[in-house]
TrEMBL record:
<keyword id="KW-0175">Coiled coil</keyword>
<dbReference type="InterPro" id="IPR001650">
    <property type="entry name" value="Helicase_C-like"/>
</dbReference>
<feature type="domain" description="Helicase ATP-binding">
    <location>
        <begin position="48"/>
        <end position="215"/>
    </location>
</feature>
<keyword id="KW-0489">Methyltransferase</keyword>
<dbReference type="InterPro" id="IPR038718">
    <property type="entry name" value="SNF2-like_sf"/>
</dbReference>
<keyword id="KW-0378">Hydrolase</keyword>
<dbReference type="InterPro" id="IPR049730">
    <property type="entry name" value="SNF2/RAD54-like_C"/>
</dbReference>
<dbReference type="InterPro" id="IPR000330">
    <property type="entry name" value="SNF2_N"/>
</dbReference>
<feature type="coiled-coil region">
    <location>
        <begin position="849"/>
        <end position="913"/>
    </location>
</feature>
<dbReference type="InterPro" id="IPR014001">
    <property type="entry name" value="Helicase_ATP-bd"/>
</dbReference>
<dbReference type="Pfam" id="PF00176">
    <property type="entry name" value="SNF2-rel_dom"/>
</dbReference>
<keyword id="KW-0067">ATP-binding</keyword>
<keyword id="KW-0808">Transferase</keyword>
<dbReference type="GO" id="GO:0004386">
    <property type="term" value="F:helicase activity"/>
</dbReference>
<protein>
    <submittedName>
        <fullName>Adenine-specific DNA-methyltransferase</fullName>
    </submittedName>
</protein>
<keyword id="KW-0547">Nucleotide-binding</keyword>
<dbReference type="GO" id="GO:0032259">
    <property type="term" value="P:methylation"/>
</dbReference>
Length: 939
């Protein structure tokens, strides 16, 4: 008994553009998300969207609080506003993870741009592969820097920079990558994500803020003069005030009532390689140290050497296959290329993206060629003769122990085993199949084209035939099939690095690092597949320790003790992982130790030096300063989060109810609705047939379609309702049949009146939309906005209206009054944003002038010191030298004074130019669009 008038109202309520600082601004994004959004994440997203004049924000929540979710909400909101020029710049290791998170949690399509996909788009005729429609672009920092000319040509609506502490040294002339990114995205609104915006120096904070907005502080010299040369409570308070509009940080202790964390429990399994295994390791290691290596391209020798070392440590099967490849290429005088090694080592794309080799190619000497081929054949023969690996035997020993530990913690009997090599993956599959796990194993890698995976995929297609979980993309669907198989039926997932990217395995709480990466960020990412938000059990982490390899032992010690990756609640802390600008840089350093150090003493000395260097970065002396500047302990934080928690529950429930009610009206002939749950069976033409559920968790459990405002079916219903022309009508509102109590509507029982609903769109800094309810009773009483909205809650019927009946003039007069009030509120709010920007620009101008004045003061000080030196000098030569130096400094000072006046004028001119630009944006226009007029009666 709801009506088309109800439909039109609900459709507008679902799609209106809310005010910039209104909670409803984020409601649509949250309603579309396939994730439980926590109050602090709403708080952060609203902060990022707060002012339309802002150039961006730094979200600096402590690790583990879901900064990706916060950024996802902002991206999703921009997407809903049809501002779809979006770019996400991340470390190479996180590209696939971001793509999967955006797709799975926010239904945002994305494309990862790297050399291969970029060149493919160029060949397809795209003049600029970054300028894509309706796809979020994801790329690595190094690729963004390399393709800056293409990126800078796009008018981006938002750029998200994850692990943004990589850019904190942008103020240093040597940091070319950060400066490149800063210049490339200079005109773009930016969102920086980092748990460690301040690590070793206040200048790092200056660097990050200047990337977001260069007009918050003056230049680096003025910042140093004003903030870094002195330390006081007054300075901290001043800095805190300056940072408040641009940087927000939530602490774990503030959200413990919303999020439950589990522990990491480490198990270390030692093993001793056989004599043959050890001999193979030693001989191949010496081969890789040769001055001339013909089998490897000189231009990428250090990168390829690192990869060969990793394969050598993985298994004899991994290195044997690669050695045979080297032999084949060398026999044909063709150096092995990166793609061939990448076929077995899946971490190659990340390494290649951040690796620079510039050595010139070697000339081929026939005698050296014959000698090298002989060595390689000997190594390959030895590797192929070794059928049992000590580490594989150790896996069989520790797996049962680790399973028992996980079971004792209440977890399911499931383990994910990570290896860096596909050949090792096959070896482990056979080893475990032969030792009690036959039929219980799933393989997961970058190809997923083996017979077992193909069979699992075919069975998955049969099970889900006709369901929307099938996307049509084989690569995406086979990943989903393999993860479902592991979750529902198998016991072990043997995975290469592909599973460390973009796969959520919260249902598993046992991780085995069969091969241990040297990059702490990569290790953290692996463990984070299981130890993440939603994990119900403590997570067991198994690592292996080679007792015959001192360097391997020191790497493990570094990762376990210095980076604290394997134990505790959060694994690596903010300070620890934040100390690394790039984990690949650390891998290079470790590879250098393996390459150059031969004796135990040399190895230990090199690792001692490396640890000491890391400690100086990790053990920051700025802990107290960081707390004073960034950590917010005000009670209003807790109060605000409680309010957001309540609002989120209420508004999301409201949105869900509007959407369900809209569906019931618009799909009355095409769907069968369940009275007990927000669920219906659809069989129409606007979307695939099937069961649709408005609760994402229930939809996931039941295999239903998640019905949300951005779903194509919902969009079709909204478009239909919004565009429908509705003539004036009379609505009989059946309050007597309503089961609940609405006191304001009950007070109108037996009364009649008029209601006009109009859409008000205000265009100034941003587009904002309002619904204007002009409601009156026949006796001239005013019906407020809240009551007008509640009139649409009970069932109603449309009656024919008397053609001669027209609303009284007071309806139009009331509407004009409401419109005037709303326009005034928008103007008042924009005035606050304007004042905030002007204050920022005034402080920026003062900073620059302060820096110039400080330079003159420093020169005055030098002049005074030279005068004293001249007076106290004994010899005439010294007196003359001091006088000459004094004159030079005085000339320099007088020149600086003239420059100061000119610079101050230039600064004021720049400030005025910026303010004029803001004033142009503030010009306000509005339009009114009548939606419908009804005569109402409450019965």
């Amino acid at each position: 008994m709801s009506t088309p008038y109800h439909s039109k109202l609900w459709a507008h309520l679902l799609t209106m553009r809310a005010a910039t600082d209104d909670f409803d601004r984020i409601t649509r994004a949250a309603a579309n998300a396939r994730v439980d959004v926590n109050p602090h994440q709403i708080d952060a997203a609203l902060f990022a969207l707060r002012s339309p004049l802002s150039q961006g924000a730094i979200l600096a929540d402590e690790v583990g609080l879901g900064k990706t979710i916060e950024a996802g909400l902002v991206l999703s909101q921009r997407w809903a506003e049809r501002r779809r020029k979006l770019i996400v710049v991340v470390p190479a290791t996180l590209r696939k993870q971001w793509a999967m998170e955006l797709e799975e949690k926010f239904h945002l399509p994305s494309v990862i741009l790297e050399a291969k996909s970029f060149n493919s788009l160029l060949r397809q005729g795209h003049s600029n592969p970054f300028d894509l429609r309706n796809q979020v672009v994801i790329c690595s920092y190094h690729f963004a820097a390399a393709k800056s000319e293409f990126i800078s040509q796009v008018s981006w609506d938002l750029a998200v920079l994850d692990e943004a502490h990589r850019l904190r040294n942008v103020y240093k002339s040597t940091n070319k990558l950060a400066k490149n990114i800063q210049a490339t995205l200079a005109r773009t609104k930016k969102l920086l994500l980092t748990a460690t915006p301040l690590q070793n120096s206040l200048m790092e904070l200056y660097g990050l803020v200047s990337i977001v907005d260069p007009n918050v502080f003056g230049d680096d010299k003025s910042f140093q003069a004003q903030f870094t040369r002195q330390s006081s409570e007054d300075r901290n308070q001043l800095l805190r005030e300056r940072l408040a509009p641009i940087c927000t940080r939530t602490l774990r202790k503030q959200v413990l009532e919303y999020i439950r964390y589990t522990n990491r429990i480490p198990i270390t399994q030692e093993f001793t390689p056989s004599d043959d295994e050890h001999r193979l390791y030693e001989e191949v290691t010496e081969y890789l140290r040769r001055e001339v290596l013909l089998a490897l391209p000189a231009s990428q020798r250090s990168l390829m050497t690192l990869v060969l070392r990793k394969l050598l440590a993985s298994s004899t099967f991994a290195i044997a296959g690669t050695l045979r490849g080297l032999i084949r290429r060398l026999e044909n005088l063709q150096p092995i290329n990166v793609e061939e090694v990448a076929d077995d080592y899946e971490g190659m794309d990340e390494l290649e993206d951040e690796w620079d080799d510039t050595t010139e190619e070697e000339r081929v000497d026939p005698q050296l060629l014959a000698e090298e081929l002989s060595l390689l054949r000997r190594y390959a023969d030895l590797a192929e003769s070794i059928r049992n690996n000590a580490k594989g035997d150790a896996l069989l020993t520790v797996l049962d122990k680790a399973m028992d530990k996980a079971k004792s913690l209440g977890a399911r009997e499931k383990a994910v085993i990570f290896t860096e090599s596909r050949r090792t993956q096959q070896y482990l599959f056979q080893l475990l199949t032969d030792n009690g796990y036959e039929g219980k194993i799933v393989l997961f890698n970058g190809m997923n084209n083996d017979p077992l995976s193909t069979h699992i995929y075919q069975e998955w297609l049969k099970r889900h035939e006709g369901e929307s979980v099938i996307t049509g993309s084989r690569s995406a669907d086979i990943r989903a099939a393999l993860i479902e198989e592991f979750r529902d039926r198998a016991t072990i997932l043997i995975a290469t690095e592909s599973a460390a990217e973009g796969v959520n395995l919260q249902f598993c709480s046992l991780i085995v690092n069969y091969d241990l990466p040297w990059n702490p960020q990569r290790v953290e990412q692996r463990i984070g597949r299981c130890h993440r938000y939603g994990q119900k059990h403590d997570v067991v982490v198994v690592n292996f320790l080679n007792k015959r390899n001192e360097a391997d032992q020191r790497v493990y010690e570094l990762l376990a003790e210095k980076f604290q990756l394997f134990s505790g609640i959060f694994g690596a802390s903010d300070e620890v992982l934040g100390a690394l600008e790039s984990g690949v840089d650390l891998e290079k350093r470790i590879a250098q130790v393996y390459q150059e150090c031969r004796t135990v003493e040399e190895i230990n000395a090199a690792f001692d030096a490396l640890q000491k260097e890391l400690e100086s970065s990790i053990e920051s002396r700025l802990t107290e300063t960081r707390r004073a500047l960034l950590d917010n302990f005000d009670e209003d934080v807790h109060a605000r989060l409680k309010v957001y928690e309540g609002q989120a529950t209420e508004r999301l429930s409201e949105q869900q109810q509007y959407l369900l009610s809209l569906a019931k009206v618009e799909l009355a002939n095409d769907a069968l609705f369940d009275d007990s749950t927000p669920r219906f069976r659809y069989s129409g033409n606007d979307a695939p047939s099937g069961i649709y559920h408005l609760d994402w968790k229930a939809a996931e459990v039941n295999g239903d379609n998640f019905f949300r405002i951005d779903h194509p079916l919902a969009q079709a219903l909204v478009d239909r309702a919004v565009t429908r022309e509705l003539p004036p009508a009379e609505l009989a509102i059946h309050y007597s049949d309503y089961e609940g109590l609405i006191s304001t509507v009950q007070a109108l029982k037996g009364k009649s009146g008029w209601l006009q609903v109009t859409e008000l769109a205000v265009e100034s800094l941003e587009l904002e939309e309002f619904l204007v309810f002009s409601g009156i009773t026949d006796d001239g009483g005013i019906v407020d906005e809240e009551t007008c909205l509640k009139l649409f809650k009970p069932k109603a019927m449309v009656r024919q209206i008397d053609p001669s009946a027209i609303p009284p003039a007071s309806v139009e007069q009331f509407e004009a009054k409401i419109v005037k009030e709303k326009l005034h509120l928008v103007e008042e709010k924009n005035g606050r944003f304007f004042d905030e920007e002007v204050a920022k620009l005034d402080r920026w101008a003062d900073d620059l002038k302060f820096g110039l004045e400080q330079e003159i003061k420093d020169l005055d000080k030098q002049i005074r010191e030279l005068r004293r030196a001249s007076t106290t000098a004994v010899s005439l030569a010294d007196k003359l030298a001091a006088q000459k130096a004094q004159r030079d400094i005085e000339t320099q000072r007088n020149k600086k004074r003239r420059e100061l006046y000119e610079a101050q004028d230039a600064i004021d001119a720049k400030r005025n130019e910026l303010i004029e630009n803001i004033e142009r944006q503030l010009k306000q226009t509005h339009r009114l669009k009548p939606l419908f007029t009804i005569r109402w009666t409450v019965v």
